Amino acid sequence: MDAKELSSLPEDAEEESPPNPPPSAFSSVPDRPPIQTPLQKYGPLEWSGYFDKEEDVTIPGTTDVFHVYSAGSDGPVVFCIHGGGYTGLSFALSASQIKKNARVVAMDLRGHGKSFTENDWDLSIETLCSDVVSVLKVLYGDSFPAIVLVGHSMGGSVAVHLSAKKMISNLQGLVVVDVVEGTAMASLIHMQKILSNRPQHFRTIEKAIEWSVRGGSLRNIESARISVPSTLTYNEAKNCYTYRTPLEETEKYWKGWYEGLSDKFLSCPVPKLLLLAGTDRLDKILTIGQMQGKFQMVVVRYTGHAIQEDAHDEFASLVLNFISRNRIGPCGVEIPGLRRPLK
To answer: What is the pLDDT of residues 236-257, one digit of tens each?
Structure first.
């Protein structure tokens, strides 16, 4: 081709603007949030974001001091008793919801959390029951408000014994969380192995929180970040964190927690709600009692053993609806804003 046939572009000629690109399917997708480090994802959270206050309750005539968390200012008192190895902070997320319509109180049992007694390792059912009554008397004197006992696992056993023996005046309701005599008694022979298989030491609190979630004992990261730190103590000699409560050393009390529990539960002279993580946990005695309408039962699905932590919103709603349904409160009236379920 002859060079003359090639026409040059003028120097001042403007370049044509490229056509607008077609809209991308990803053009409206927001930026991906930054990846959290384990320190951020599993960092401890303070109790004050969930409960209103904490206090130490000293039992008169002793050196026993029980740590108590509380929230709310009106309505009946939902008194929460945690399971073995847990603390009152296992109810923190639930308390932040329940406190809108009722008062919530959660104590650390002896040998747990921030409570310290003359004998931290006397976890007999009699002693645990006596401790709860003593704390209530310090808090309320001789004039108890309307009380709903809520007990998880070992704490459920304590709540049942207190109710069956009529040890608490003005007790108006009982909520037991994922503990049934048949299942509990059958699992005791495996308990030492289960306890020995869990890690005994953690380099940091974050590692303990991470293990509790990854290991499956808790399924709610937020709740684990609140409750797990309170179950640990720092071992200066080994420069690590270990469990505050050596459950493996309390074996002599296990049978006393659960033996005869189903009959005692059915005998409790107050409205009763049993929350379970699975129907396989219901034993024969309770199956018959449930068919006879002696108590209300709800299976909370997709949770582990700690229902109040894994499904805190549903747990709080179930407790409040139980209170409303049974007209529990200072004047025996329903909680405003809650509908009574159809019978």
So the answer is: 999 999 999 999 999 999 999 9
The pLDDT of residue 32: 57
Q: Give the pLDDT mean for 187-215.
A: 94
Overall domain count for the chain:
1
In a domain, 11, yes or no: no
What is the rounded distance in angstroms from the CA atom of residue 286 to the CA atom of residue 295?
9
Q: DSSP assignment, residue 202?
A: B
Compute the half-sphere exposure of residue 16: CA atoms within 13 Å on the CB side of its CA: 4
CA distance 324 to 94: 17
Whole-number mean pLDDT of the chain?
A: 89
CATH number at residue 267: 3.40.50.1820
Residue 12 bears catalytic tag = no
| Catalytic residue list contains 153 | yes
Segments forming the whole domain that contains residue 280: 50-198+249-325
In a domain, 8, yes or no: no
The 10s digit of each residue's pLDDT in 84-143 is 999 999 999 999 999 999 999 999 999 999 999 999 999 999 999 999 999 999 999 999
Does pLDDT of 28 surpass 60?
no
**Catalytic residue (one of 131, 178, 283, 310):** 178
Annotation says 56 is catalytic: no
Which listed residue (82, 112, 305, 312) is catalytic? 305
104 is a domain residue: yes
Residue with tokens 């709860």: 132
**131 inside domain:** yes
Q: Please spell the DSSP secondary structure of 97-114, one letter per residue.
A: HHTTTSEEEEEPPTTSTT
Catalytic annotation, pick one of 90, 94, 134, 153:
153
Q: What is the DSSP string of 15-41?
A: PPPPPPPPPPTTTTPPPPPPPPPHHHH
